[in-house]
Every structure is written in structure tokens, then in C-alpha cells.
């Protein structure tokens, strides 16, 4: 028994595609007897003809990927797009660098490795970009400021 024409009528009534229309296999006789749109509507109301759910794209793999990224993984060179400055701006990098240097200078001042005058001089060098990191700051102090 061919129910293709019934499926097209049902699809129009359900406002969906033909492939989303499902007929109850036990009630094929009732479906074949239905001739008008009204008959088909009754079958829809009786849940003999049903509209299937839309198939979506699963987010499972994407969610796993996000969890990995939160852990700091999946961020290798092959994944990166754009320039270095696009991922972390120059200003943010500068802020990170200068704060580290200033913190180191302050700790050296508190340990009495630097006096007030030397501290100010080193502070200005940090602003000028001479002191790039904490380790370089310590090395600079050892090399040029001898006590």
C-alpha cells in the first residue's frame, strides 16, 4: 500500500517536510482510508500521524573541546590565528611586565639592596623598557649596583 500522497498531505498540514512525517505502522488501514484534509487532521489529533523532531547538530564534541581549553590545552601554535598582538595586546603585555619589575624593585628596596636614589633610578629604567623582567632586574642590580 502506497501512502506517499498521504504523506505529502500530512506534511502540508503539519507544516514540515515529507521526511519528518511519521505514520503509526499499526494504523496503516486508517491512514489509507483518510481521503480529505479533515480526515488527516483527525489522524494527527489522534497521534496516528506525528511530526518527528528536527535533527540538530550535537554540542557534545564542542563541549569537550571547551573543557580542554579551560584547562589550558588545545592552544598550540597550529590553533592560533592572527598576530601575537591580536591574542594579548601590547598594552596588556606591557602592564604585566612593568608590574612584575616594579614589584621586584620594591622588594629589593625593602631588603635594603637599593637605597632611595638607586630605587628611583631603577624605577625610571623600568619605565624606559630597559628592565624587561624580574630576573633581568636582579642581574642588573648585581652587575651595576655593587655594595
General description of the model:
This protein is mostly helical and 147 residues long. The protein has two domains: 4-51, Orthogonal Bundle (50s Ribosomal Protein L19e, Chain O, domain 1), CATH 1.10.1650; 89-144, Non-ribosomal Peptide Synthetase Peptidyl Carrier Protein, Chain A (Orthogonal Bundle), CATH 1.10.1200. It is 59% helix and 4% strand. It has helices at 4-14, 28-33, 37-45, 60-70, 84-87, 90-110, 116-128, 134-144, and strands spanning 21-23, 49-51. The chain has a two-stranded antiparallel sheet.
Helix/strand layout:
Blueprint: H1 4-14, E1 21-23, H2 28-33, H3 37-45, E2 49-51, H4 60-70, H5 84-87, H6 90-110, H7 116-128, H8 134-144
Helix pairs in contact: 1-3, 6-7
Summarize the structure.
The chain is mainly α. It is 59% helix and 4% strand. It starts with a helix and ends with a helix.
Amino acid at each position: 500500500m502506497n501512502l506517499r500522497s498521504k504523506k505529502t498531505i500530512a506534511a502540508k498540514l503539519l507544516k514540515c517536510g515529507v521526511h519528518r512525517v511519521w505514520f503509526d505502522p499499526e494504523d496503516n488501514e486508517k491512514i489509507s482510508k483518510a481521503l480529505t484534509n479533515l480526515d488527516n487532521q483527525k489522524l494527527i489529533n489522534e497521534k496516528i500521524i506525528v511530526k518527528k523532531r528536527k535533527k540538530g547538530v550535537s554540542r557534545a564534541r564542542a563541549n569537550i573541546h571547551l573543557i580542554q581549553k579551560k584547562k589550558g590545552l588545545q592552544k598550540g601554535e597550529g590553533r592560533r590565528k592572527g598576530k601575537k598582538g591580536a591574542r594579548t595586546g601590547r598594552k596588556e603585555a606591557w602592564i604585566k611586565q612593568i608590574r612584575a619589575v616594579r614589584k621586584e624593585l620594591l622588594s629589593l628596596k625593602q631588603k635594603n639592596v637599593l637605597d632611595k636614589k638607586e630605587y628611583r633610578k631603577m624605577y625610571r629604567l623600568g619605565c624606559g623598557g630597559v628592565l624587561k623582567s624580574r630576573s633581568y632586574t636582579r642581574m642588573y642590580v648585581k652587575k651595576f649596583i655593587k655594595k
